[in-house]
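Rather than argue in generalities, we reproduce a single protein record, letters for residues, whole numbers for local backbone shapes, just as it appears below:
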Amino acid sequence: MARPADLGTHFCPVCHRTSKFRASGHSVRPHAKCLHCGAKERHRLVWLFFQRCTNLFNGEHKRLLHIAPERALGPRLQSRLGEGYLSGDLNSPEAMVHFDITDTPFSDAAFDAVYCSHVLEHVLDDRAGLREIHRILKPGGWATVLVPISVPVTIEDPTITQPEDRLRLFGKTDHVRRYGPDFKERIVEAGFSVQCHQPTDFVTADEIVAMAIKPKESIFLCRKEK
């Protein structure tokens, strides 16, 4: 049987529908966005990651903090986790609470898990953000963190504030750095043990094609040791 992509269509693991995906993104990417639920490449990937590489959906009660909630995933996470789900952002009207990631209103050890995707590249003090995530996690808890990895070594300069300069150096007007694989060192500095997962660690080659997943997206699983 032909894979969905062979027929000009793809399969979305978030909404479980088969359809064509449309182009999307600042640098236009073909087959990026599901027509039904709006899930993009990293949303489809992280949904599979939650299912296959974490205990998030094992039926036990958990408190999850979803930072900067995405429309494609927020309602589905809330449906699965019920009252254990909480979303937060600095300004987004879709967030349930509002806070600065470097200074959250939560007590120590408040959450079993945190999901933070493509947020820290916007935060001037990303190290403070990572320390705050560590603080609000319970011992034994974990955070799933994604950032765009686009250079060999992280580059940043807090004196660069003009949008046009940030666009030229960091790729977007609201980014304050470009990350390299050394981002992992910042996670360790915050107190975590960390594993960096690639799609090929838990998604088959056929699934990468059928679901239009970026094969080089990095997912950092950060654990707060007991």
User: Anything to note?
Assistant: The mean pLDDT is 95. The helical segments are 41-53, 74-81, 126-136, 163-170, 183-189, 205-210. The chain has six helices and 13 strands.
